[in-house]
């Protein structure tokens, strides 16, 4: 093949193998020559890299934001671009487009963009490029510090960094606490890019000897406004003190801080402020549908349950205001079995558990995550359909971050906010001001499932769960009480007893801070009134004014009074800080006084069943099959589009107000009135009676007064405490007790003497029998001598005191006396023995106190004479 036909026949065909070998030789020679030439011309790798870097730096100035659509349009290193491509990031988002260029140019940047818009890459790409530019190595130490407000967010950022930076040679570390500090300290010095939480970082700055940040090139604050707010202020100040002033700083958040003070603290140099959605109509993603419902506090659990039942195939996050709420409701909902897997994430969990939950929720397709605000910022759980804000967020910014856990990067999502009637006005106003488009929707009352009874039964069976419910109760009320925005959060408007019932608690636990608040407001009121009275020319209070004051006071204090009433139940006592019992007692005393001052204004807690009735009005009980699917319940919130039933919760509540239930119109009963009622009926409250073995009745509580004074009956009718009378009565009681005690002791002594006499008589009889018996006894005493231990002897002092204190021990003491008599006998035997042994025994006995037989002197003498006689 390949040769002309005429040559074939002639036989001069060249050998193809030979010609190939010839060609091969030539070719390889040429290749070798080329190689050698290239080798001569080739620059070292570092040099090539450096040249590449300088080309990149030159291109930084040429970056034109308008021309950028892809990451590759930026002058980025091949290693970074490769990492981005491998992670499927090609097109840039708006915040990435606008900030990466500025950051590459070495400027300080404040970047703000809606949730889920890709801020993480907007700072990670410049981070990698910054160190690449400087050809950073592990020996150069810490080059970039990325601070996140929560452990989960730091972990997530670290994971993204690992993904996009995998082609670089830098070392990256995650320092978030919950792990061994020593273990971290060993590695921290080799880390080039450190992702951390503020607290743990400061701990290392303080405690890890070799750790320093003197070479730091860049500081990144993710969720900057959160990190710079009051909660982290001190920690951040301390961290910043340890950082070099000459560095680049990047701040990112969906809700940006503009506080000049904060920025000055961070020593930013002419920062570039980039708020990509500043001119957008809304501050939340366009793909996020946002609604709110208004419902009573006591209905919330049922609303949540009904919501979950109607979204069984969705992925949702439910936000609560406190860890203890999450802890309790997580347990309760697991028991309620709504038909969807439930997870809980809060700050009181162990770090390992937090990570497990985080990863589990990332993996799940349909699940619900009960979380506190630690999950509100930055977390990027994939494909979350719903965000339900069970408790009203602290402010509009918190709302934006929470809601932003759904509808991320071009995805759809829905957010539902549950508001109490008292929170609605203030919160909705704030949201609208922040350009958050929220609409009110209604719950379909027919789909609302009441779970209170089930909760009650869970709590009746499980004491631990009950305690959790109590903690949840206090914790929620405290969270409302501590909120800064008093226009939205008014603790005095919370229906406390009804809320307790809705958690399954029959009695609302005591809430100490409310009591303190009560005291404070009382003081304020009193001073206010006193000022009024003290004013020159101020008229004395009229009856109307007194009534007005009462009404005002009543309204303000009703919650606190309810709390105090409940506190009387010892079983349901729940103290927030149980450290100071005395103080508690003082407080109780003061409150007693306060109670007296308030007189008949004290409002009683509505009975459990009554409150339940009120609560149950708008709720329909639907006993549904646990395993029911999405279908039948799916229209739980559909009424947002059409209020098909023409009746919403608000209207129902209004109806309720028009036709108040019996419990509502019921006259308020004061403690005094209740006590009088009880007395009239001649009841004895809280009386504990036990029966002795002989069937005798013994009243254990309240302790019976033994010295009944004649005027007791009269006194009781007057109500209150007459201190003088009480004192007298106590003294009388004291005398009576002493007298009784003396009698008891005398009787005991008498009994003892009789027994002794009896014993002596017996002994006389026996002596008369024979001397042999006596010798036998003495022999036994001698045999036992070696094993004798003086410590077994009764302590005469003890004997005396115990004799006085406990009559039940009489028998033992008598036997002790007998032993002592035995000892006396033994000692007389010792007299008969040789000098050495006698001395030894003596040494033993010398340590003993003179024995007290418990007999009178005459009787003792008689006994001794008798014994001597019998020995002779
Ligand atoms: N250029 C991109 N191309 C494709 N996906 C991207 C890009 N940038 C970011 N994403 C994806 O968008 C999602 C949201 O990104 P990111 O978590 O950075 O948002 P964020 O703005 O920081 O949100 P938040 O304000 O809630 O913290 C992530 O899943 C991320 O992988």
TrEMBL record:
Annotated region Disordered: where? Answer: 1-43, 562-635, 702-849
Q: Which residue stretches does the UniProt record annotate as biased composition, category Basic and acidic residues?
A: 1-16, 563-575, 612-622, 724-742, 753-772
User: What chemistry does it catalyse, as a reaction equation?
Assistant: ATP + H2O = ADP + phosphate + H(+)
The residue ranges of the Helicase ATP-binding domain are 100-274
Q: Where is the composition biased (Basic residues)?
A: 21-42, 743-752
Q: Is Lipoprotein found in the keyword set?
A: no
One matching Pfam family: Helicase_C
Q: Which GO terms describe its molecular function?
A: ATP binding; ATP hydrolysis activity; RNA binding; RNA helicase activity
Q: Where are the transmembrane segments?
A: none
The UniProt record lists the EC number as 3.6.4.13
First-level EC class = hydrolase
Q: Where is this motif: Q motif?
A: 69-97
Q: Where is the DEAD-box RNA helicase Q domain?
A: 69-97
What Gene3D superfamilies does the annotation carry? P-loop containing nucleotide triphosphate hydrolases (3.40.50.300)
Q: Where is the composition biased (Acidic residues)?
A: 578-592, 623-633, 773-788
Source superkingdom:
Eukaryota
PANTHER family membership:
RNA HELICASE
Q: Give the similarity note.
A: Belongs to the DEAD box helicase family. DDX10/DBP4 subfamily.
How does this polypeptide assemble, per the annotation? Interacts with AIM2; this interaction promotes AIM2 stability. Interacts with SCNA; this interaction causes DDX10 mislocalization to the nucleoplasm and cytoplasmic inclusions.
What is this protein's function? RNA helicase. Putative ATP-dependent RNA helicase that plays various role in innate immunity or inflammation. Plays a role in the enhancement of AIM2-induced inflammasome activation by interacting with AIM2 and stabilizing its protein level. Negatively regulates viral infection by promoting interferon beta production and interferon stimulated genes/ISGs expression.
Reproduce the free-text note on domains from the UniProt record: The Q motif is unique to and characteristic of the DEAD box family of RNA helicases and controls ATP binding and hydrolysis.
Q: What is this protein called?
A: ATP-dependent RNA helicase
In which organism is this protein found? Oryctolagus cuniculus
Organism taxonomic ancestry: Eukaryota, Metazoa, Chordata, Craniata, Vertebrata
Gene symbol of the encoding locus: DDX10
């Amino acid at each position: 093949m390949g040769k002309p036909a005429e040559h074939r026949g002639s036989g001069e065909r060249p050998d193809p193998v030979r010609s190939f070998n010839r060609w091969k030789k030539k070719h390889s020679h040429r290749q070798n020559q080329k190689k050698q030439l290239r080798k001569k011309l080739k620059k070292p790798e570092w040099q090539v890299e450096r040249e590449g870097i300088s080309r990149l730096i030159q291109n930084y100035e040429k970056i034109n934001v308008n021309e950028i659509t892809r990451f590759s349009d930026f002058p980025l290193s091949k290693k970074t671009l490769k990492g981005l491509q491998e992670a499927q990031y090609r097109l840039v988002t708006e915040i990435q487009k606008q900030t990466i260029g500025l950051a590459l140019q070495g400027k300080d940047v404040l970047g703000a963009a809606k949730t889920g818009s890709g801020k993480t890459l907007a700072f990670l790409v410049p981070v990698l490029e910054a160190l690449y530019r400087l050809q950073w190595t592990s020996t150069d130490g810490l080059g970039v510090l990325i601070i996140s407000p929560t452990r989960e967010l730091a972990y997530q950022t670290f994971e993204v960094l690992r993904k996009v930076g995998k082609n670089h040679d830098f070392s990256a570390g995650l320092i978030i606490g919950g792990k061994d500090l020593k273990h971290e300290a060993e590695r921290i010095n080799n880390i080039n890019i450190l992702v951390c939480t503020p607290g743990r970082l400061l701990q290392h700055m303080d405690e890890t000897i070799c750790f320093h940040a003197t070479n730091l090139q860049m500081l990144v604050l993710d969720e900057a406004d959160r990190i710079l707010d009051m909660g982290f202020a001190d920690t951040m100040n301390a961290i910043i003190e340890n950082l070099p002033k000459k560095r680049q700083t990047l701040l990112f958040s969906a809700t940006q801080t503009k506080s000049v003070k904060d920025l000055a603290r961070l020593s930013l140099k002419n920062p570039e402020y980039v708020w990509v959605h500043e001119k957008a109509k809304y501050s939340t993603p366009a793909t996020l549908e946002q609604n709110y419902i208004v419902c009573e506090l006591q209905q919330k659990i049922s609303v949540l349950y009904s919501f979950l039942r109607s979204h069984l195939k969705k992925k949702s996050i439910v936000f609560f205001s406190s860890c203890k709420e999450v802890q309790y409701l997580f347990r309760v909902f697991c028991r309620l079995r709504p038909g969807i897997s439930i997870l809980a994430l809060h700050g009181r969990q162990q770090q390992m558990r937090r990570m497990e939950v985080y990863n589990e929720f990332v993996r799940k397709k349909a699940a619900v995550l009960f979380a506190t605000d630690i999950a509100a910022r930055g977390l990027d759980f994939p494909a979350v359909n719903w965000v339900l804000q069970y408790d009203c967020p602290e402010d509009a910014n918190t709302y934006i971050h929470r809601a932003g856990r759904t509808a991320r990067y071009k995805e759809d999502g829905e957010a539902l906010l549950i508001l109490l009637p008292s929170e609605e006005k203030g919160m909705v106003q704030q949201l609208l001001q922040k350009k958050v488009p929220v609409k009110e929707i209604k719950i379909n009352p027919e789909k609302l499932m009441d779970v209170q009874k089930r909760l009650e039964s869970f709590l009746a069976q499980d004491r631990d769960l009950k305690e959790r419910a109590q903690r949840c109760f206090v914790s929620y009320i405290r969270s409302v009480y501590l909120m800064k925005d008093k226009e939205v959060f008014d603790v005095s408007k919370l229906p406390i007893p009804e809320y307790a019932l809705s958690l399954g608690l029959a009695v609302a636990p005591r809430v100490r801070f409310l009591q303190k608040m009560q005291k404070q407001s009382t003081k304020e009121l009193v001073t206010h009134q006193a000022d009024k009275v003290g004013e020159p020319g101020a008229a004395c209070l009229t009856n109307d004014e007194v009534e007005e004051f009462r009404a005002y006071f009543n309204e303000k204090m009703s919650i606190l009074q309810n709390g105090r009433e409940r506190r009387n139940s010892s079983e349901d006592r729940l103290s927030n800080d149980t450290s100071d019992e005395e103080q508690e007692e003082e407080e109780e005393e003061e409150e007693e006084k306060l109670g007296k001052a308030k007189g008949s204004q004290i409002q009683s807690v509505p009975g459990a069943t009554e409150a339940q009735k009120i609560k149950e009005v708008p709720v329909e009980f639907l006993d549904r099959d646990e395993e029911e699917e999405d279908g039948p319940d799916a229209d739980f919130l559909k009424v947002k589009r059409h209020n098909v039933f023409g009746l919403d919760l608000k209207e129902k509540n209004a109806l309720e107000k028009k036709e108040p239930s019996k419990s509502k119109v019921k006259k308020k009963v004061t403690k005094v009135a209740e006590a009088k009622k009880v007395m009239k009926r001649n009841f004895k409250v809280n009386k504990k009676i036990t029966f002795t073995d002989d069937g005798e009745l013994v009243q254990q509580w309240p302790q019976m007064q033994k010295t009944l004074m004649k005027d007791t009956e009269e006194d009781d009718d007057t109500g209150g405490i007459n201190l003088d009378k009480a004192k007298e009565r106590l003294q009388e009681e004291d005398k009576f007790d002493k007298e009784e005690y003396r009698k008891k002791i005398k009787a005991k002594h008498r009994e003892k003497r009789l027994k002794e006499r009896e014993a002596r008589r017996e002994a006389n009889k026996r002596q008369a029998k024979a001397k042999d018996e006596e010798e036998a006894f003495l022999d036994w005493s001698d045999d036992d001598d070696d094993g004798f231990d003086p410590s077994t002897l009764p302590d005469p002092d003890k004997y005396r005191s115990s004799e006085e204190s406990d009559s039940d021990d009489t028998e033992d003491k008598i036997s002790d006396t007998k032993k002592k008599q035995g000892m006396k006998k033994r000692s007389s035997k010792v007299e008969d023995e040789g000098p050495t042994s006698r001395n030894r025994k003596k040494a033993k006995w010398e340590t003993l106190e003179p024995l007290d037989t418990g007999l009178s002197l005459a009787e003792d003498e008689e006994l001794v004479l008798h014994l001597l006689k019998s020995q002779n």
